[in-house]
Amino acid sequence: MSSAAAWMEPSLDVDKLSYEIFSILESKFLFGYDDHKVFLPSTPATPVAAGLRHSSVGKVRILSIDAADGILAGAALVRLEATLRKQSGDTTARVSDFFDLAAGSGAGGVLAALLFTRGPDGRPLFSAAEALRLLAKHRRRLASGAQRKGLLGGILCRSGGLLRRVFGDATLRDTLKPVLIPCYDLATGAPFVFSRADAVEADGYDFLMEEVCAATCADAAAGAAAVEMRSVDGRTRIRAVGGGLAMGNPTAAAITHVLNNRIEFPAATGVEDLLVVSLGGAEAPAAPGKPAAPLSAEALARIAGGAQADVVRTHPSP
């Protein structure tokens, strides 16, 4: 895998208003929570049982990033990471050190992948500041042509290029913590969630991170072609369109995963055992306009409606 520093610009100015907005997040997550154990890093992901390990300190901490503006979410994470470093006293701490699971859709899925994929040194591939600089530096390039409606369209909707240089041969198994990144599979007509837990259990569910990011960012409403991809063993084929269409807010999927996964999270028996930080607008998908072939407006509406129904059916009752 390539060094993250090679893709960075020296600095990036985030406007003052953004920092004021994200200070609200900071106060809610850090100072509105009275358990000081939140500042302790979660348990390192050392292989046990099926190659997984749960956090043994406090609540299960979930980071969920919507399929919204990656720059705004990235700026929030930069501020959060800086404050976590200050509060914990660890100047090298990363966002992934303080969360037990990350879920992201669309641009949020790319951020989750950047922050939770293991780098050559065994630490996260990117810090929050590095991830934000990457998105800002390549913003125009990544949102070119017909994909300009989506921040991470264009080249991110194809395998190779920038994604290949960033992630190299890393797969879902190479994440430091459990990660969930959704897309919609046109082959099966149902949402598909890329999951580290599934990847560890079977080769047929392990995919290259570059293709996972391309799949969750494929904006069918803006005319992007579906992403054709296979698992690393070639057994599972997916024809993916974006996670934002199927699951714009992946928080429900993350909560369901934790509460129904006794191998990774045996101590989580109810929502009171969870601490969730959700970034994004959490808005339902907008009514699609006339997209480029092969998907019609009716097909997009059917996908969005069916996907949301699937999410409701899998969400546990209170």
From TrEMBL:
<comment type="function">
    <text>Possesses non-specific lipolytic acyl hydrolase (LAH) activity. Hydrolyzes phospholipids as well as galactolipids. May play a role in disease resistance.</text>
</comment>
<dbReference type="InterPro" id="IPR016035">
    <property type="entry name" value="Acyl_Trfase/lysoPLipase"/>
</dbReference>
<protein>
    <recommendedName>
        <fullName>Patatin</fullName>
        <ecNumber>3.1.1.-</ecNumber>
    </recommendedName>
</protein>
<dbReference type="GO" id="GO:0016787">
    <property type="term" value="F:hydrolase activity"/>
</dbReference>
<dbReference type="GO" id="GO:0016042">
    <property type="term" value="P:lipid catabolic process"/>
</dbReference>
<keyword id="KW-0442">Lipid degradation</keyword>
<comment type="function">
    <text>Lipolytic acyl hydrolase (LAH).</text>
</comment>
<feature type="domain" description="PNPLA">
    <location>
        <begin position="61"/>
        <end position="255"/>
    </location>
</feature>
<dbReference type="InterPro" id="IPR002641">
    <property type="entry name" value="PNPLA_dom"/>
</dbReference>
<keyword id="KW-0378">Hydrolase</keyword>
<comment type="similarity">
    <text>Belongs to the patatin family.</text>
</comment>
<keyword id="KW-0443">Lipid metabolism</keyword>
<dbReference type="Pfam" id="PF01734">
    <property type="entry name" value="Patatin"/>
</dbReference>
